[in-house]
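User: Predict the structure for this protein chain, please.
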Amino acid sequence: MESDLTALLKAICPRVSPDVAPAGTATPYITYQGIGGQSMQYMDKTLPNKRNTLIQINVWGKTRAEALPLIRQAEQALVAATSFQASPVGEPLWTYDEEADLRGCLQTFSIWSDR
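Assistant: Here is the predicted structure, written as structure tokens:
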């Protein structure tokens, strides 16, 4: 799922990194991280062939006007993806990184994919 997610996000913005962007990365850029998910197992103690992961997509830019359209494009692309099933958990959170002087839009998705 991660390679499909990375490819999908790179079609929106070429600067995509898991967890944290390398120092000096030009804006705008996208990071993503797994933040949990729903664990499942059958009554016979076996695991299903699907996995649920909560993925937080983080778009960072110099302005919110730079970041917000990219998170909207990411939402549309994830929902339309055919390699996994993604649903937004809510609307984007707008944030500010004072140390980096960047504006961010963060959105969480529930993604079901092959195990």
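The beta strands are 16-18, 29-34, 50-61, 85-88, 93-97, 102-114.
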